[in-house]
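>> Question from a student workshop board

For tomorrow's exercise we were told to take the sequence and the ligand below, predict the bound structure, and bring the output to class. My setup keeps failing. Could a helper post the expected result so I can at least see what it should look like? The ligand is flavin mononucleotide.
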Amino acid sequence: MSRIFSDNESQTLADIIRLRRDVRGNRFNDKPVSDTTIDTLLNAAMLAPSVGYSQPWQFVVIRDSNIKQAVQQTFVTANALGSQQFTGDKRAQYDALKLEGILEAPVNLAVFYQPSETAVLGQTSMPEMGKFSVVCAIQNLWLMARSLNIGVGWVSILDPLKVKQALNAPESAELIGYLCIGYVDEFLAEPELKQKGWQKTKSPAEVIFKDGFN
Ligand SMILES: Cc1cc2nc3c(=O)[nH]c(=O)nc-3n(C[C@H](O)[C@H](O)[C@H](O)COP(=O)(O)O)c2cc1C
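>> Workshop helper replied:
Here is what the output should look like for this input. Compare the format with yours to find the bug.
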């Protein structure tokens, strides 16, 4: 018989989902993250749903500080360009934000999409579905990490080609996510970008519609 979860277990999952946070460099601490723990996170990632069960993900575990530094350099350049897309107070607010933890996190993880060379069931009319499957894997990993009280921060302000170069990635692999992973001193109760007034939380009424967008 399939396993039935208790209300308590269900509540635990709800808590993990609610209390998951994006963790940036100012919150990682020095506690080492073992290879076994990283394997636990990767196993959670590899249990994600994927279109046609294609499992189109590839993971590169990074502990090498030279690689981290090369990636962090691409962040600095990309972040300066990112900042220019905002004006006035918003740019000042942007510039005050810490938006990565590449050097502070003991482990970085680059997550790639490796497209299949043959047709994939379910991906024949919406080609992005392969990449979305990789995002599902990242979310699994993120929640598993939170359950182990490990912080994860997703850094997307990067030059993906430079990251690929730093990792000797094959041309066919597409960078989907670059994650910073480590134990933390604290998890914020709410998204930092909400706390700092960058974005408000959308209400259910703004995003949920019934029987069409009416
Ligand atoms: C696809 C994706 C890319 C993201 N990229 C960045 C990033 O480059 N820098 C950053 O500080 N946070 C990044 N984040 C984290 C979001 O800012 C964060 O998830 C959001 O503010 C909500 O906060 P929470 O994750 O703590 O609930 C990213 C999140 C996602 C899902």
